[in-house]
Design goal:
307 residues, mainly beta, four-stranded mixed β-sheet, 44% strand, Ig_sub2, transmembrane, immunoglobulin domain, Ig-like_dom
Amino acid sequence: TRDGGTHHGGVARGRGGRVVTRADGGRYVCRATNRHGVAVRSVVVTVEYQPSIGDRGCPERRLWLEGTPAQLGCAATGNPPPRVTCAKLRDSHDPPSATPNATLAELGDSQDPPQATPNVTRAHAGTYQCRATNAHGSAVRNVTVAVEYGPAGVTLRVLPSANVTRGGGFTVDCGAEGVPAPTFTWALPPAPNLRLAADNRSVTVTGATTANRGVYTCTASNRHGRRAGSVVVRVDESWLVALVALGALGAVTALGLAVAGGYYLKTTACKKGEYNVRDAEGSSEAACLHRHRDDRGEVFGIQLTQP
């Protein structure tokens, strides 16, 4: 009887009487009886079988987070208990120097010394083959591992240039790596002529003014963190400055010429002569016409205009 209950006479009488299943394992009580007495003996039956890997103990898809311990636990059944190894399969994205089928995790052998567990990197993403092995055979299961990580590598580009001419246009593009894909927010100079793209990855300015100069900051975020980057935009007004400078120079030149002319009239052209010349010297209607010499010396001609 098994466990003191069910009678298994067929099993007791002959070897190979039927196909063994895992359900046949357990404790059996063998009882021999004749008219002179009874002999009893207990026997433990162990059923060995080859490994198998199911979805419950080894899901075919895993999600890892960058920086956490890289552990690919894959449970298998079998008797004796199988040794489980999981190795990454090389794909087209792996560098040539990568070791093919490098073992990432070994489970199921208590005699193995403990090994340091590496931290997850983006290079760990890919397909792994987990193999369970014992004396009766092996079982194989492929597992796909995806690696998530916070935003990284935030870059900003100003097109066509970060030095913008007043009245011109430009676009600031923001890019960042991250899984899941990051979303974008901006801190911008306060100006009415800003237009954000539908996905918030870029901002466009038309008709640039001084209000558009300053720091443009883009922040990329996902559920694992956030990262920001900045760029400085300058609005060049050199043409306006030059125009103002030219206008100022013209005014200064005209003023200089007027002062020089008056100084010339007062100090040179009209400082000598008859009384009427000196009398007209200070008049705003006087203009020096010519100067010549005769037997009387220098003669200055003065024309008085009517008011």
